[in-house]
Amino acid sequence: MGKSRRNRGAQSHRKDPIAKTVKPPSDPELAALREKSILPVIKDLKSSDPKSRTAAAAAVSNIVTDEKCRKLLLREQIVHIVLNETLTDANLDSRAAGWDILRVIAEEEEADFCIHLYRLDILSAIGFASQAVLENLAKGSAVSKGEAKVTWAIAESVVALLSALAEAQDEILEAIVGIEGIKNLLFTLVAHADSPSSICLEALSALLTLSEDNRRLAEDVVADENPKPLTTLTKLQATADAKGVLACGVLHNIFTTLEWFDSTPGQKNLSDAALIPTLSSALQGSEPAADLPPKSQWSNPTEVLQLALEILADIGTTLQVSMQGGNKKGGEEWNGIGDDTAMDEDIDDKASGEEDNVGGDDDDSSMDEDDMADMEMVTGADDEVEGEANMDDVPTLRELIQQAIPRLIKLATTAAQSDDALRIQGHALSALNNIAWSISVFDFADDHNAGILKAW
């Protein structure tokens, strides 16, 4: 007789491992905090009443910044609740609070949390949120002030979360760049005329992270399709404030990735030379935007100054490649003249004719000392012109020498009176070191580099 079959229906009664009962913490203080502040809001987040859910989401958004509360919320599976319930809530305020909760946790916890979010397919949720934000922004004045405010809040949280995710793992960064809706959101937030400064800066900061050694994003930017990211970035980089410095950083990453150097400039003759005036001006300090909240990283002038120094230091490193391209180009042109066989034969013919006239008047064929001095003056003037031309062949080096280096030296040699000043001094020295190292690749025994040597 065959064995009786196990009741397959019994499997449906298994408990959801995600929804398993969470044991209270052994610490009496944490246990009391859990009972008083955590369990009530968790219960309300799952409530059928929309108002209760919205109020609970706002409450969690406020308390999640506290480390003890955050750890307790994580124990109570707050991420699972937010992803599956809060972010899909019909109420826009609830969704905004949900994104803010994830943003805070991602910024405060280790990178492992961002990797965990990625594995939970958070990018799909961000893609949907990005599309919703873009649709509301496209409506313009048709959206109420209240809805517009919440839309901007969602955008800010989503972009900050994207930055944290991109910094956590290269695989996540590549996945972000592969989603058109997310890239379009970032480009739009940077270009939109009504973007609050804090959100524009968050979007620029995210692009700075995403654009490093990333050809796919670089090509999307230089394609300059609506909302015209390349045009927007080149306009922003003209001002020596936080937006301008961040735009310089994004553009430098793009120039490096696409090899837009002095000898091979890109669209609109763009290369790092165009960025140095702004970065050099930023070394003198800048005032934060009036509408920038104090909690923003970019409200601190020291952060802006440090970023400008880091970009200049990186330009100092890529300067070697840029200058080698320029020297190679000049060397090829000169060698082309020297290899002209017909010209060599013509010179030989002239030399033979001169030998036939050797017996002529010595006074007519030679120069006195005054004539030699005059000739040296003329030759020297020609050298100056040639040297200036060489400097024009390497505009990035020219801009560094004329604008950045004097200010870098000042920052590097000023006595540091604080930890921030000491950190800035170190970054200034690093930038100078990178520039000097790149200059050392020149062969100054070559007359072609005489002008650069003199300028240096």
Automatic annotation (TrEMBL):
GO molecular function: unfolded protein binding
Compositionally skewed regions (Basic residues) per UniProt: 1-12
Biased composition (Acidic residues): 341-369
Chain residue ranges for the region called Disordered: 1-26, 323-369
Any GO BP: ribosomal large subunit biogenesis
SUPFAM superfamilies in the record: ARM repeat
PANTHER family attached to this UniProt entry: HEAT REPEAT-CONTAINING PROTEIN 3
Protein family according to the UniProt entry: Belongs to the nuclear import and ribosome assembly adapter family.
Name this polypeptide is given: ARM-like repeat-containing protein
Organism: Colletotrichum noveboracense
Source species taxonomy: Eukaryota, Fungi, Dikarya, Ascomycota, Pezizomycotina
